[in-house]
User: Fold this.
Amino acid sequence: MSRLAVELAGIRLQNPVLAASGTFGYGREYAGLVPPARLGAVITKGTSLEPWPGNPPPRTVETAAGMLNSIGLENPGLNHLVEEDLPWLAGQGATVIVNVVGRTIEEYVAVAEVLDRHRGVSGLELNISCPNVDKGGLAFGAAPETAYALVRAVRKRTRLPLLVKLSPNVTDLVRIAQRVREAGADGLSAVNTLVGMAIDLERRRPVLGNVTGGLSGPAIKPVALAAVWRLYQVGLPILGLGGIATWSDAAEFLLAGATAIAVGTATFARPRAMLEIVEGLEGYLACQGIANVSELVGRAHG
Ligand SMILES: Cc1cc2nc3c(=O)[nH]c(=O)nc-3n(C[C@H](O)[C@H](O)[C@H](O)COP(=O)(O)O)c2cc1C
Assistant:
């Protein structure tokens, strides 16, 4: 077995480096530079039952150490995913985790039920943490009981491994994660973006069409790392993400308690960042004489 092979929440991965939802599309545009089969897995853009149009432009703006986005979960919907994207990803030999979103519990359940029967899907990631939509996303993930109800309902209707993606913009992250665990989740993804904004001095108005957006990139790495550190006590496997740009960032997340990591914003600046991280981790393990990357997980806790 390769040094980098891991199992995350029941999903076998050839390496612990995944493409974060919404930052890699379905892999097509990057395929020439980043063959999807070389990643641990591709996490798709958030998929809803019907197509969603997303928020008004402008929808992205650069910040000092990252970016703000207010895409609002624009996506072509479940049918498009099933008919076009999943077959393409399967043809590429990619491991696929589908990120799921809905306005109601029923919508999440409906998407999960269809994907449960699909051979090209290794797991689901429930997005209960998007700050850019009024209904769905963080509306479910901000409180322990709504998070519990949603995960419980989905759990009853699918046998697929369930990761639940959490927001750092909450009062008690650990309590929410504990309820998500009690509802039957197999793992946690931490974190989604943090709420932020920017103001245009010429127009004297907010830059983003949606006023606020989600902050991602290097600026949020310490926040995300602390979230993973605290979530480690919950006892579920963790997919760590938020500001990871290099193999050493990735190694910090593993040591803090993540079983695998995902890369988002860094891919925009350096499309091959994920492959460089895979190589860097491999080199680190060889150098340290570590047989498998899972030996690092949580080690910083002593
Ligand atoms: C343009 C953009 C689109 C995103 N779309 C989604 C999405 O559809 N679903 C989701 O769960 N997270 C989405 N995210 C959040 C990322 O998956 C990730 O959690 C976040 O950006 C932090 O990681 P990073 O700092 O490495 O980018 C999006 C982020 C960006 C920048």
